[in-house]
Amino acid sequence: MLLEDYKGLIYYLQNPFVEKLKFNNFIMSKEGEFHFYEVKKIFLGIYLIVILSIIIFFIYSLIKKYNKEKNDMLKLFNKGANILITIFTILLIAIYTDFSKAFVIFHKIFFNNDYWIFDEKTDPIIKVLPEEVFKLYAIIIVVLLIIFIIVYKVLYYKSKKRSITK
What we know:
The protein is mainly α. It has one domain (2-165). The protein has helices at residues 2-14, 30-66, 73-110, 131-165. The mean pLDDT is 91. Keywords: Membrane, Transmembrane, Transmembrane helix.
């Protein structure tokens, strides 16, 4: 019952071809439905940015390879990784220190309304998606991103060291 609606929510948020969110076991207000639509736009925007970035990276790499030029993209990624580690570490500290405040600031940055403030009478889904769930999601996402960046940096420095010793 609950898992069915949760899977439906995730499917709705991640699939650009699903136009309407419908819960089988929960009522939903128009404001709640609109908030989930706004969240969906953010998810799809992130996916689009990732896909376009990958395409641009491959096109750039192919052009460099075709012109027999040195591809300095790894250096650029390393600088970006330094910035991201700083940002994600600050985020992790903010989440750990006062998640409620960070949660409110996040919503004020990404949403121009208060539809994210659910009333459990009109949007009972909030009873099973309390703030603590989002705190756990945020910690997992930020920690995984930091780990991926650290792995990238380790591989970057290993490849750099290998190219110096050759």
